Amino acid sequence: MPYLGGEETVRELKRALSNPNVQSEPLRYRNTVLRVVRAMSQGVNVSGLFSEMVKACATVDVVQKKLVYMFLCSYASLNPELSLLVINTLRKDCQDPNPMVRSLALRNMSNLRLPSLVEYVEQPLTAGLRDRAACVRRVAVLGWAKLYNLQPGSDIDAAVVNELYSLLRDPDPVVMVNCLRALDEILKEEGGVVINKPITHHLLNRMKECDVWGQCEVLRVLQRYRPQSDDELFDILSLLDASLVSSHPPVMAATLSLFLSLCADLPAVSLAAVERVSGPLLAACGSGSREMRFTALCHIQLLMRSVPGLMGPHFKRFFCGYAEPAYIKQRKMQIMVELVNDENVSMLLDELKGYCTDVNTDTAQAAITAIGRIGRSYSDRCLEILTGLLGLKQDHITSAVVQTMRDLVWVCPQSSDTVCSALEGCEETLQDSQGRQALLWLLGVYGEGVSSAPYTLEVFIDGVKSEVSSGVKMELLTATVRLFLTRPAETQDMLGRLLHYCIEEETDMCVRDLALLYYHLLKCGIEETRNVLQGRRSDPSLGVLIGRPADPISQWACSFNTLEPLKKGATETLTASRGSPEHEAPKPKTVVELSETLDCSHVHSDPPGSLSADQHSDSTADLPTTPLTLSLSPTISPEEFERLWLQCHSLLSEQDAEESNDFLQTEERIRCSAVLQRSPQILQAAMQLVNIQTLAFTPPCTLPWRVFFYTHTAGTPASSLILGELLYAGEADLQPAAQKDDEEAERKVDEDAAAGELKGREDGQVEVKVTLKQQPKDEKAVRAFLSVLSTVLHTLSSEKA
Amino acid sequence: MIRQLFILSSKGDPLLFKDFRGEAGDDVVNVFYQKVTALPGDQPPVVMAFRDLHFLHVRQGGLYWVATTTADASPFTIIEFLNRLAALVKDYCGGLSEKSVQMNFALIYELLDEVLDYGYIQTTSSDMLRNFLQSEAVSSRPFSLFDLSNVGLFGADTQQSKVAPSSAAARPIQAGREQGGRSEIFVDVVERMSVVVGSNGVLMKADVEGEIRIKCFMPSCSEIRIGLNEELSIGKSQLRGYGAAVRVDGCSFHQGVRLDEFDSHRILRLCPSQGEQTVMQYQLTDDLPTAPPFRLFPTIERDGTGRLILFLKLRCDLPPKSSAVNVCASVPVPKGAVSLSQELSSPDQSAELQSQNRAVAWQIPRLAGGTQLSALFKLDVPGLSSASMLEVGPVGLSFELPKFTATGLQIRFLRLSPVQPAPSQRWVRYVTHSDSYSIRI
């Protein structure tokens, strides 16, 4: 009925509405109006009935009035002239003795959204602000906000604003909250409602009267207030303490937001607040509503960035229910991975193992990836599970397992033997291109260990004509060339066939170019090829890295209690969990890999790269037999670091720096991208990759910007401890400091820096001062360390740029 | 701030649409529905973005309740609000379904008008709202002979009227006005269990989330007092009374609950407003006072012909007086299982192979405490290998335990304040649901 014959319905309704018999019977009249509104909400265009409905507006029946108003508000913009007729009825209703009728009329008058009617609405709205009934005042206050948004750019009436400010003291809490909302909209251009000390304290005192929604609104507005003294701040915090552990998640979240914004300079207080909300958040995770559970889970992930151990004792709460939707399961698994420790690892793995055979393939793959993540620290147990899963011979599981193994083996090369033996025979079940690419990569790199590798590749090469995915073809090329290097006799023939096909018949340019490149590379000789293709191996020490260092709260505080944490889909975290730098996207991958390997074989030309490479070769020339090894253990607490740092300082000031046997202090300058200072977490992660532990950061984008870090050097005659500081004091600091150093290598750096200064500003390069303190003294190690550090910084800068 | 709000049926028909700020295009609803249907599976993410609009939705009663908003809105607030709105609609219309929303759309529009103004939440308390709502709810419940069975011969009270029918609370709260609806109050103790039992029968995890809900059909109710078990202790250390202590880890209360007698006598005092509200929520983690309600003893074998044989014994460890209803055990089976033959211990049970979920669902309508059932399933699985046994994963149980609480929490008494204008009826009900009860094999 509603979709077909819409016109018929409209005509019939029109007849009924103008029928005097219907009009004389209130109940029939109301039912006819109801039918009109029903048709409207079902999508029929009933705008033709506007004039009849205007007439129907003059009635004493409140239900009918409401229905007609609803109709009029939807269609007023199409009939501005006829709407003028309604205004009279509405204005009359505004005088009605019944407050409900008054508020109804006032609300709909402001909802008509017709700029031409503004002049008629202002007077009733002004009267409405002083009405006896709270429900009329509530409507009137928001009415002003609607009015101002109707005429953007019009002058703001100071009298109205003052009146609204004074209504903040209204006895009705909803009127008060509405005033905040209305002022926020009206004064949008001036930054919203002004929150000064008296208003803050007034709002805080009246919070108890508000319902949940009002409290959230007040807490949101209060984020703008900056207390004048610490005493005031702590007074506010203690007032709000009860709502921090409120059983209503909205209030709890809004309160924490407020805490974090008030205590931005007091990390200890923020941390304490975060720990306090963990209880209510966990309770919300068990809420009956799935959506609420999901929201709470996403926010727990956010909190865990700063307090990784927050949910440690409650890891069982994150076990998935079997009927839960996939989006909740994936979040829970991500949290479970973060919570792994020696005691619970077997329980968590048992639980995750159960999800691997889930009906939902996304859930199954997420579970397998999660096991792979845990495998970085507990590789044996995880590989056992993963190998077992291969036996299921199901394509989506096998594909996910092979990809996970590839990522795992990159981080933990010591597990390559197990992976190699597991790979036999799984090519038959692999269907999707991602999985086959992973298998090919593994066969290429670890082909020596897989006895059937050449035969597997041969099957792929024989079927290359029917292969659709160019990613698979490129991976196949690389894998075959790599395998040729280790097992030439078995591979030579098929490599020839593959290259011939790819160069002569292939239509995809990327594949063809890659084949040509390998062809020419092979012509250059086997050693060159080996340098290019096997130059890049993963570092065994990567395997030690587990757990994320805690982020400062300020990094996520602004996105807490917004939609941001909910949006980051599983996809993003999935790529993040991929981890291994070699596998981003299939196409750029090969390019990156090649350029980097070429770099290592001294064919570099770009300035930042050459600098680091020069230094690198310098340092290796100095230390031909003992390469520098850095390690993080034993760990040093921030307090200990501070003590050692100051101790070095005082010792050095007492005696001459050069003559000390125990301590060494050097200063060095390194150019790097200014972007670094804005992303300390990237710097931190990068430093961890080379086993340098960062301890403290100044907040991003402040001057002077400092980073403190430490590491231990081993392998040199005796191991020593290096403490360091990166300092960027701003542009002004550069020139005088640049003349002090006298070492040749450093002068070179400085010249580079000075030259770079002129044109370097626009590409965001700045100079960072490095101060190093070492105990015991070992100059060679320091030199080597400096080159490592500068390489890290340069790599980061070039990646950022 | 909420920009638009709409309710869609599960098939995507718009049931209600309201634009609060006059900023919407007409196609918002369609955009949302296309986004939902474009996804595989039927579980879309809670937040979806389209240009600068963000859709947040909850699913209640098979309907999509969608709000559009800006990126900086609080998800906690909006989701809590949508849930609250659904509860209000349920209260006022007597139930949540496509039909009841369609029949009562005028009432719901009226409700929305009062609840939200210009996208700002005004109030959701049914005490305030009831003054403003004028439309009568249309009940969508079909006529049922069960309703008649409650009326005794010549109007006398029958035995049956002492037991409230399960649907008694599913009616509009304001319907009573001229029909002289009974003034009743329901107090429900509802618990949800999530349990993981290891393959060796050891309890790995047992959580209970419970709440006390009140559904009040009294036009005006001054104060009620709810007495809980006096030996109820809260937290790890606290112990009260002798005998078997009833313990919960933590609890929280509705704003309106006065707790002055809670510490001494475990009495909650409150003035309930019309409709449904949660008075108290509590959790218990890892420390059930009794044994978990179900144990499963599975035997899984492959026979020579490549068939998978599952022999399951399910024991119900409830006290003999209680029983579980609507028990369903879902046993994941290897992919590619084609046919199922079954031997069940009684005719009222049934089992079927759901190839969609790759599971055998074993339905048991009623299982009394202290009894044991067994079932033998033979599955034909082409290409069954020893590794396929891995796929016979954790068994999920869903059930309802009427008149039973897992924590042992009981309502000692429910007293209405002395002055009550009309005779009123009080009902106390207990039920424990399975949130997720999985038993590893």
TrEMBL record, chain A:
Bias (Polar residues)? 612-622
- InterPro entries per the UniProt record, alphabetical: AP_beta, AP_complex_bsu_1_2_4, ARM-like, ARM-type_fold, B-adaptin_app_sub_C, Clathrin/coatomer_adapt-like_N, TBP_dom_sf
Q: State the residue spans of region: Disordered.
A: 571-590, 602-624, 737-762
Q: What is its main location?
A: membrane
Q: Which UniProt keywords apply?
A: Membrane, Protein transport, Transport
One Gene Ontology term, aspect cellular component: endomembrane system
Query: What's the protein's topology in the membrane?
Result: Peripheral membrane protein
Give the Beta-adaptin appendage C-terminal subdomain domain ranges.
Answer: 632-794
Instruction: Determine if Membrane is one of this entry's keywords.
Output: yes
Span-the-membrane segments of this chain are none
| Subcellular localization, as worded in the UniProt entry | Endomembrane system
Q: Name one GO molecular function term.
A: clathrin binding
| Gene Ontology BP annotations | intracellular protein transport; vesicle-mediated transport
Tell me which domain of life the UniProt entry assigns to the organism this sequence originates from.
Answer: Eukaryota
Record has Chaperone as a keyword = no
Q: Which family is this sequence assigned to?
A: Belongs to the adaptor complexes large subunit family.
Name the record gives this protein: AP complex subunit beta
TrEMBL record, chain B:
Extract the Pfam families matched here. Answer: Adap_comp_sub, Clat_adaptor_s
Query: Record's GO cellular component, any one?
Result: early endosome
The answer to whether the entry has keyword Transport is yes
Q: Which residues cross the membrane?
A: none
Give all residue intervals belonging to the MHD domain.
182-440
Extract the InterPro entries matched here.
Adaptor_comp_med_subunit (IPR050431), AP2_Mu_C_sf (IPR036168), AP_mu_sigma_su (IPR022775), Clathrin_mu (IPR001392), Longin-like_dom_sf (IPR011012), MHD (IPR028565)
**The keyword Manganese belongs to this UniProt entry's keyword annotation:** no
A single Gene Ontology biological process assigned to it is: vesicle-mediated transport
Membrane topology field: Peripheral membrane protein
Swiss-Prot/TrEMBL keywords: Coated pit, Endosome, Golgi apparatus, Membrane, Protein transport, Transport
PANTHER family named among the record's database cross-references: AP COMPLEX SUBUNIT MU
Give the protein family. Belongs to the adaptor complexes medium subunit family.
UniProt function note: Component of the adaptor protein complex 4 (AP-4). Adaptor protein complexes are vesicle coat components involved both in vesicle formation and cargo selection. They control the vesicular transport of proteins in different trafficking pathways. AP-4 forms a non clathrin-associated coat on vesicles departing the trans-Golgi network (TGN) and may be involved in the targeting of proteins from the trans-Golgi network (TGN) to the endosomal-lysosomal system.
Q: What is this protein called?
A: AP-4 complex subunit mu-1
The scientific name of the source species is: Oryzias melastigma (Marine medaka)
What taxonomic lineage is listed for the species of origin?
Eukaryota, Metazoa, Chordata, Craniata, Vertebrata
